[in-house]
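Throughout our pipeline, every protein is held as a single compact record rather than as scattered files. The record that follows is passed on verbatim for readers who wish to inspect the format.
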Amino acid sequence: MAVKIYPAAREQILDIWNYTERAWGEEQADLYVRGLVEILNQAQSKRYQWRQVLDEALENVFFIRYRHHYLFFRELSKKTLGVISILHENMDIPVRPKQDFKRGDDE
C-alpha cells in the first residue's frame, strides 16, 4: 500500500512529533509517529476500520482512529491512499478536514 501524505497532514505529523517530544521525550514521539505511519500502511488491508465522513463537502473521504488522533484520507487508487489531515480528538473535527482537503487539492 502506497500512502501519499498531503502538505497539511505532513505538517500535522511534524506538529504531533514536536508536541509529544516536548511532553514525553524523543523516544515516545518516535513511537507515536511510527504508530501513525504503521496504521496508514495497514489501512488497505483493514478496510473494515474505515468510516466514511458524512459530509457532502468531503465526498469519498474516510477516517480511521489511532489513539487520540483521527486520520482522514481518500482512496486515490486501489493501491494508494491520500492522507488529507491528521487531527487530535480535541480539535474542531467538522471544520479542519474541509480546510485541509482544499489545501490538498491545490498540490
